[in-house]
Amino acid sequence: MIMFDNVFKSAGGEAVSENKFLNTDSNSGSVETTAKPLPFKDPNFIHSGIGGAAAGKKNRTWKNLKQILASERALPWQLNDPSYFNIDAPPSFKPAKKYSDISGLPANYTDPQSKLRFSTIEEFAYIRMLPSDVVTGYLALRKATIGSRRSARQTHPKPSSWG
């Protein structure tokens, strides 16, 4: 069976497709042509004609967060349903970015004495000149307080059985 597609323009300027099949059986001596409708077109479709071509191109107005929250409050939600109030993200797999305590630039270095982060040599020199109360103020801003650490070489009292 061979299929021929004929596409032509109608009087209205629309492209119309016509499918014809040619049966090439050696058993039958006659040649038949039939028009077969396209399977993806609905033959019962009637266009509404409302709005024309520009009807679907209206600018959509976006709702802001306040409007979304107000509409969520009006709906009958259950306690366990998710909403913009109670959504929460899991912790990130990426490490947290570290920023300089002095300039706010991305910091690759940490001062071992004061534990302040810095990004340039000039900031390191500035950190070394800072008094200890200013250093603790910077650490408090970052919420990183210096706790008392036990060193590995700390001496422990000897038991009385040792001599």
UniProtKB/TrEMBL annotation:
Keyword entries, A-Z: Nucleus, Transcription, Transcription regulation
Chief site of localization: nucleus
Domain Vps72/YL1 C-terminal: start-end pairs: 98-127
Pfam families xrefs: YL1_C
Classification via InterPro entries: INO80C/Ies6, Vps72/YL1_C
Keyword Transcription regulation on entry: yes
Subcellular location: Nucleus
GO-annotated cellular components: Ino80 complex
Domain of life: Eukaryota
Biological processes, Gene Ontology terms: chromatin remodeling
UniProt protein name: Vps72/YL1 C-terminal domain-containing protein
